[in-house]
Each structure stands twice: as C-alpha cells, then as structure tokens.
C-alpha cells in the first residue's frame, strides 16, 4: 500500500478496477466551490484504515484522514502533520506529542487516545484487519495477535496514553525508521464514533482530513465534499470530488474527451499514442513509487519445490521488457532491474542492475533454465489478471514473448478473472493455481516498504506466501540498524535473497498517469502516482 499493499499491476500506476456509470462531469466553480469527477473503482474491503491495503481504498483514506506524518506530494519526504514531535533516544522507545487544535469532522477532538485506540483495534486478531501486521513491531503484538490460537490481551502493552497530547510507543526491537512509517493510512486516528456505532461509520466514514464522505453507493461511486472546518494548512482548493466507478477504462477515457468526466487515471493502452493530441497536452506521465511484477503461489508445491527457482528465472529472461514497453506501453514505463523503485534514489535503497542478467532478455539461457528446472509446472503457465482493467493486451504480450522464447505458442496464456475485487479475493484467499499479475505502490518511501510487506514471512501483502529465513533475519537486522546507510545496505542484501530465488519477476517501474478536462487546473500526481486531489482547481 499502499498498500502496504496489495499486489497491484495495471497499465497505470494507480491500479483501478473501473466500472461504467452514466453520471456527468464535475461542476464549475472558479471560487473554489467547483466539484470535480474522477474515475475510480470499488475497494475490495470496507474503508477501515487498518483493513485497506489497495489503491482504490487508500486513495479515499488519504482524502479523509491526516496522520502523524504526511508524505510531501512532490518529494515523498515524511513531514510532521499531526505530530508536534516524535522523540527517541534508542530507536525502540518513542514519545509522541500531537498538535493541539485538531478535530474529526464530527467535532470530536483528536487526542493521543484516538491513535492508541485505533492502533489497538487494528492489531487485534479478533478484528481481522488486513494490515494488522504493521503493528507487529509494537510490544505486546504477540499477545493481541498470536500466530496461532486465541489472543490473550485486548491492547498492545507497548502503547501508553500519557495525556491528551502525548502517548508512548515501545517496540519489541529497534526500528530506526519507525517514525517515517507513520504517514501510512493504517496508522490513522479514529473517532469514538467508529467504535460506538461501527456499522454506521462503515457506511459513512468520519475522519480528520480535508474531505468528508457525503455518500457512497457500491457499483456507482462515492461523493466527497470539502470540509470547511478542516484545521490543516492543505485545505481543499475545490468543493469536492465525485469518484465514479467504471468497469471499462475505455469508457472513462471517452467520457473525459466528451466532457462528462473530469479526470481519468487509467489511459487505455490503445490510446497511449494519441493521448497528448486528444487532450491537448492535459496528460501527466511521471515516475511513481511502484513496480509491476509477476508473483507466484508458493503455497502450491508445483511452484515451491527445489528447482523451480530456475523455471522462474528462465521465465524472467524470456520476457523482452524493452520490446513490450516500446510497442505496447509507448515508453510509459521503465524496465525493472531490481525490486524497488528509482524514486527512492540510490541513498534510499534503489540499486539499478541488482537483478542482473535475470531481468534481461536472454532467450537461449531462458529456455535452458526452464528445462533444467523440470519444465513448466503442468506444462503451461497461466497468468491470472483482473479482466476489468486494460490488461489483456499487456498480459498477452508477456505470454507471446515467453512462447516465442520457448518455441511453444501454448506455453503461456492469460487467465482473466472478473473484477478487481473478484481477483483480489482469490489472491488474498490463496486460491491462485499459477502465476498472477502483481505489483506494488509504495506506502511510504523506504526500501523497507518494497521488501518487508511483500516477502517477509507472514507479511500482510505476501500474497504468494514466499518464506525465507535468511531474508527475514536480514530485514530484522536492517530495521534495527540506526545508521541509515548501513540499514540500506543490509536491506539490499535481503533483496539479493529475493533475487536468488526469483520470489517475483520484476517487469517494469510504474509511472503515474492522468488525463484531465479543460475544467481543471493545477493537476499533479504525488510520489505514489495518485492525484493530489486537494490541490486541483475547478473552473
């Protein structure tokens, strides 16, 4: 997650499961009251902060919540938002002081207890929250969320409320970059209304961000309105946003051209070569913190038995990334050569070429490795993907490259699966029988976020259930290291373990994309590839 996330892979950085609707575009409002419309898709889960780890849901959470930290839209740097200060002398015990004057949109005051209650709820095994894992470094997690059996405590022993503005956090090990993670949606505060009438809150979430939820109809859309009482300095520059559900990205794109939709975040593949002319330059394509991959179901012995690492490496070397990016993606992606993202920079952990020849096109070696590994499990690779986004042409191109390399036009085929929600349900219920489209949009700009949530044993977005003790140990060491450069170096050693087993096949680094109507101005994407909705002006 953002995710963290969730396995995402689409033709745009914001992986949207789009569904058709006949609603019109946004309303003009040069005085800042105009409402814009944007393409969207139904989230997989209800919008609980600790239960949402895919882009569709976190897009909304980032509009209706503000956390202790906020990631600068332009740089991705974690800056204090509700946090007045976060103090530590040992990278294990933290004292957090929050700013006074913050309230939820229903008038409740945001206090230290708002955070502590929210984190305890998110960590509890009984509440079955997808992102509970993010609280795993807080002392007492093993009691509220044991690996097996029932929980023996209701609250994390490492969380203590000192007063309305202060709480303390004790971790079960050193975690030097813990403060930088606190801008992620999972760590959002929650009002008492969430606990007092949970069902009502789920129908109409209440947060402390620049927007409030006015209404939501699954399959149709969500209407958000500017909260005029919002105390932050990043107030919405528009009157609200109508997120419209689509099932076909072509329809969304056509609606922008027709003026019945203001913003589309998924430009269909066939339109990439025409989008600049169609929208007269109102098109954004910028590097974002994400990577698209092919993941594997390691819970299936066919993909976890010894030797299959050669098959996975062979498949990776059978994919001509440059050709696909040139012909299909119109150079709107960059071939991946590691498992992170260039937006991190070298100092942040990005290491170009870490994957080596395994992420390059070497057809002869690819064919040899697949044979040495025992051949394709079942004789054929079926790559699953959600059918409601413009993915078919891309998956077909990947399979064609594999088929040409192996000299078998049925070695690889695409396997479309209903909607994004249908697909994600199969993935998270561990029902995949072969490789599946995946990817990652960072939750926060740290190399740790590209590795731990996806590949650590039992992690929240380890959808393939890959497990490696050496990798886990290196991640633990890296998290405990207080020297940033040393920590990054150890994380890169862990990434090499991912490489050696080809835990997932890196394809390309994502770019954030968006096309918009003449009604809008000041449109930009943040480092996560998501529109900065509060900055958009209408009219």
Describe the structure.
- Helix 13 links the parallel strand 14 and strand 15 (412-417).
- The chain has helices spanning 55-64, 112-123, 141-144, 192-196, 198-203, 249-258, 275-278, 301-304, 308-317, 321-327, 345-348, 363-372, 392-406, 420-428, 447-455, 469-480, 484-501, and strands spanning 35-40, 69-71, 78-80, 83-88, 93-98, 159-163, 166-170, 211-217, 221-226, 240-245, 263-264, 283-295, 334-335, 381-386, 412-417, 436-441, 504-516, 520-521, 537-538.
- Helix 9 (308-317) packs antiparallel against helix 12 (363-372), helix 15 crosses helix 17 (484-501) and helix 16 (469-480) packs antiparallel against helix 17 (484-501).
- The strands form six sheets. Strands 11, 12, 13, 16 and 17 form a five-stranded antiparallel beta sheet that branches.
- It has 17 helices and 19 strands.
- The longest helix is centred in the last third of the chain and has 18 residues, at 484-501.
- The chain has 539 residues and is of the alpha+beta class.
- Helices cover 28% and strands 19% of the residues.
- The chain is globular.
How is the topology of this model organized?
Layout: E1 35-40, H1 55-64, E2 69-71, E3 78-80, E4 83-88, E5 93-98, H2 112-123, H3 141-144, E6 159-163, E7 166-170, H4 192-196, H5 198-203, E8 211-217, E9 221-226, E10 240-245, H6 249-258, E11 263-264, H7 275-278, E12 283-295, H8 301-304, H9 308-317, H10 321-327, E13 334-335, H11 345-348, H12 363-372, E14 381-386, H13 392-406, E15 412-417, H14 420-428, E16 436-441, H15 447-455, H16 469-480, H17 484-501, E17 504-516, E18 520-521, E19 537-538
Parallel strand pairs: 1-10, 14-15
Antiparallel strand pairs: 2-3, 4-5, 5-7, 6-7, 8-9, 9-10, 11-17, 12-16, 12-17, 13-17, 18-19
